Amino acid sequence: MLAKPCPTELVNLISPDRGLDDQRNLFCTHYDDCLDEAIRQGWNSWCCTRCGLSAIGPGEADSIDTFATQRRLA
Q1: What's the pTM?
Q2: Per residue in 1-51, pLDDT tens?
Q3: Cα distance between residue 54 and residue 31, in whole Å
Q4: Cα 33 to the chain's mean position, in Å?
Q5: Is 70 helix (H, G, I), strand (E, B) or coil?
Q6: Are 47 and 18 in contact (CB under 8 A)?
Q7: Domain around 36
Q8: CA distance 73 to 47
C-alpha cells in the first residue's frame, strides 16, 4: 500500500523570518497534493513537518528555477 501525504494544519501563518524551508519541503513530489488538500480544508497555513514523505523529492543540488518550471500544470 502506498503512503499518502499528510499535511498538518497550522493555526498561525508561517513567518518569513523563521524560514519556509523548516516548515515545507518545496521539492517534495507530493507538495502540490498537500497544497490542494490545505485549500480543500480551508486552512490558512500548513506544514510538512509531521509527514514522512516530505523528505522524498529531488536533491538539494537541483535548481529551484528548473524545479519550478517542471511543476505540473493543471
Answers
A1: 0.64
A2: 456 778 999 888 777 666 666 678 877 878 888 899 999 999 998 988 888
A3: 8
A4: 8
A5: coil
A6: no
A7: 8-13+20-63
A8: 22
Residue 74 lies in a domain: no
Rounded CA separation 33/10 (Å): 17
Owner of C-alpha cell 500548513 = 46
Instruction: Kindly state the cell numbers that stand for 66.
Output: 528548473
Cell numbers at residue 38, please? 490545505
For residues 57 and 29, is the Cβ–Cβ distance under 8 A? yes
**Residue 73 within any structural domain of the chain:** no
CA 28, 32, 38, 40: dihedral to nearest 10 degrees? -150
- CA 55 to CA 52: how far, in whole Å? 7
> How many structural domains comprise the chain?
1
